[in-house]
Amino acid sequence: MHVHFLDPYRPGHSSIxxxxxxxxxxxxxxxxxxxxxxxxxxxxxYILLLAWAIIVxxxxxxxxxxxxxxxxxxxxxxxxxxxxxxxxxxxxxxxLSIGPWALTITLPGAERFISxxxxxxxxxxxxxxxxxxxxxxxxxxxxxxxxxxxxxVAVFGLMWxxxxxxxxxxxxxxxxRLSRSGESDREDLKSGxxxxxxxxxxxxxxxxxxxxxxxxxxxxxxxxxxxxYDGEVxxxxxxxxxxxxxxxxxxxxxxxxAILVGAAxx
Amino acid sequence: MHHSIEIxxxxxxxxDGHQALRGVSLHIEPCxxxxxxxxxxxxxxxxxxxxxxxxxxxxxxxVAGLPVVKENLGxxxxxxxLVFQNPDDQLFSPTVYDDVAFGPIYQGLPPDEVxxxxxxxxxxxxxxxxxxxxxxxxxxxEKKRIAIATVLSMDPEIxxxxxxxxGLDPRARRSLIKLLDNLDITMLVSSHDMLMVRELxxxxxxxxxxxxxxxxxxxxxxxNEALLKAHxxxxx
Lengths: 266, 236
Fold this sequence. Notes:
The structure holds 2 protein chains of 2 kinds.
Chain A: H1 15-18, H2 21-37, H3 43-59, H4 64-72, H5 75-78, H6 84-87, E1 92-98, E2 101-106, H7 107-133, H8 136-145, H9 150-179, H10 195-226, H11 243-265
Antiparallel strand pairs in A: 1-2
Chain B: E1 5-13, E2 19-28, E3 33-37, H1 44-50, E4 58-63, E5 66-67, H2 73-79, E6 80-83, H3 87-90, H4 96-107, H5 111-124, H6 140-152, E7 158-162, H7 170-182, E8 186-190, H8 194-200, E9 203-208, E10 211-217, H9 218-223, H10 225-230
Parallel strand pairs in B: 3-8, 3-9, 6-7, 7-8
Antiparallel strand pairs in B: 1-2, 1-4, 4-5, 9-10
């Protein structure tokens, strides 16, 4: 029994899947940067960016619904921007009074909040497409190609590899606990135990998981040493990009730049 | 008395689509000791996880006289002592006492009775001196015995063990076999240890590829070399 639900990668053969991971990675970053730099209230530009995202989603054959559902997961983070509704000065739209406090929603504040929400929603969609169409090892290669520090890439790689092992381990622990969570046949007894006791048990489980992760990391390190690891992460050279990949890269970067210029003039 | 396992036409697929059980039927009488053998990935562990409702597939499973359905899970988990292959999964508390006491405390037994149960269970596995030891620092053999004590403290009617002798040195293995031999309780044990199977279990069930391919007296099946070979097993 293994855990798969954490892995966002959806195998496929669409043109987006086949695009080189480095190109996808750079373009996703550029897309998110463009979206972030687009000024507040530039609605036509947002529609353009959203259309772009949806075209990519259709090309990726993941299904627009799939990406939109996943994108909902990012919505709670947008709430962090909620205070701007009240803090940006401008024409009052609505006034709420809660006890001695009065909160005023301003028009520019609402505009800014909706812009931020839209921009993060569009950006998240593109990030989801990247993660769903690119396997993690390919993503690591892409990070290496754009000169993310090698040690950091190695840490990401190890984390990805052992996260599943750790989650599996946690599931097995919980399963063992469940197996012994029984109910006596005696009518006068209430099963479940006291809340504090249950919390203690959960704490013990977390502790033992931590100890095991620590021990495992020691063992992994020893297996690395045994194969000659000296603290320096080395990697095989990257294969060259095809002409089609180069073309896609420059074309999309050009388009994004044009959108950015358009947004600045807007 | 109804200490038995009755499984009829059990099917189970994992969420990723892998079909792990393809119509398994198995009956085990009270106080019968049965070995479950078969290659890795045959579905032995999956089958075992159905006995206390951790997994639930399509089919009929009755354990200790109760159908394995949601309303009965609490009672069933108290009656089936399931010992996992890796004792580290089983032992999640800081001390041996806490771990062995988990089942009885969960059932709501009064503290005196919990203590009695723990002492009795540890005495059965010959680990009475380990009451306040830290589970983390025990040897594999010791952990295995404590893991068995953690379910014995629940006074189960059926003991189910997944690969009990895996990773044990000869002495720890021998003492575990002796321990299992002395327990007078319905037992279903999955194992690759054919020597132990021959020594301890009069009846043997062979699983391969999600179904039971043979079920009969151990002596007879062990003599059938063609059968064992066909399912990746070896006679001891």
